[in-house]
Amino acid sequence: MKIKQFFHRSLAVVLSTALSFGLASQVQAKADSLRIGYQKNGPLLLLKNSGDLDKRLAQQGVEVKWTEFTAGPPLLEALNVESIDFGTTGGTPPIFAQAAKTDLVYVAYDLPAPSSEAIIVPKDSPARTVADLKGKKVAFNKGSSAHYLVIKSLEEAGLKYDDIEPVFLSPSDARAAFERGSIDAWAIWDPFFAVAEEQLQPRILRNGVDQYSFYLSSRNYVTENPDIIEIVIDELNKVGKWIEANPEQASKEFNKFLGLSYEISHKTVTRRNYGTQFLTDEIVATQQKIADVFTDLELIPVKVNIKDVVWTPAK
Question: What distance in Å separates the CA atoms of residue 69 and residue 76, rounded to the nearest whole number?
Fold first, then answer.
């Protein structure tokens, strides 16, 4: 009898310990930090500057860490190697990242802002239309929203992608090449576009095309921390509404980070559209059409299915 009682007590201790460990593991599974990748544009930048998200998440014991990126592709590479948990890019980078097997998920989107990017040429360039770029060197960041802008613009001008010489350059390298005259045209987005407009007075051949901007996370992070992601989207939506209601003040806040002229900041702020929302079937279908363009041109190695990597919050 004593042996049986000892066995039962021991088993109870083991089960209690295991249960406690399991509960502790579940608690530990919730992140104590959120590492955000951002660029020098959009509501995420102003959210960083305001500190509102940091304060709100700090109440839940979550520390926000911010890392700046110059473009979407390197930001998503950081997401792939688990250096960040959340970030924002244009519509094209996540397509390339998904094709490269990055374990990302689309979390939310912002409305297109076609006037915030363009294909530009030097002011003394003989090129007057996109059709004049046949046989010319056109610079853009590979896998960026500018990449799709070039493809779509060529199609509308009756040209093929092979009709130009693509030059894959980061924004800073493309700016230098543009000033040297070693490229004929440059596809670029704000704030780099706004800076070039003010400082270089280029000619605009074509403004942007409708592409949504997206907020993305790693599948593991959003699965384990959906409440944190929902808070981020809520704060982004608040910031977007504030920007729309206060464009002048938003431009001043934006300029605190950029350190450029008020005119550049004002352009960057006012030619975007705001209102961060979770994805709908219509948005997914639109993004799928863009992905299929890259597949058809064999610019990505596999066909991707956008709806496979879309996260939506629980109802």
Answer: 10
Map out the domains of the chain as residue ranges.
29-111+212-309, 115-207
Q: What is the pLDDT of residue 6?
A: 37
Three-class DSSP labels, the chain: CHHHHHHHHHHHHHHHHHHHHHHHHHHHHCCCEEEEEECCCHHHHHHHHHCHHHHHHHCCCCEEEEEECCCHHHHHHHHHCCCCCEEEECCCHHHHHHHCCCCEEEEEEECCCHHHEEEEECCCCCCCCHHHHCCCEEEECCCCHHHHHHHHHHHHCCCCHHHCEEEECCHHHHHHHHHHCCCCEEEEECCHHHHHHHHHCCEEEEECCCCCEEEEEEHHHHHHCHHHHHHHHHHHHHHHHHHHHCHHHHHHHHHHHHCCCHHHHHHHHHCCCCCCECCCHHHHHHHHHHHHHHHHCCCCCCCCCHHHHECCCCC
Instruction: State which fold the 29-111+212-309 domain adopts.
Output: D-Maltodextrin-Binding Protein; domain 2 (3.40.190)
pLDDT of residue 130: 97
Q: Residues 238-251: pLDDT tens digits?
A: 999 999 999 999 99
Supply the pTM of this predicted model.
Answer: 0.84
Architecture of the 115-207 domain? 3-Layer(aba) Sandwich (3.40)
pLDDT of residue 56: 96
pLDDT for the residue 18: 37
Do the two domains 29-111+212-309 and 115-207 of this chain adopt the same fold? Answer: yes
User: What is the Cα–Cα distance from 72 to 231, expressed in whole angstroms?
Assistant: 23
pLDDT at position 28 is 38
**Which regions in the chain score pLDDT beneath 50?**
1-28
Query: Which pLDDT score is estimated for 8?
Result: 43
Query: What pLDDT sits at residue 23?
Result: 36
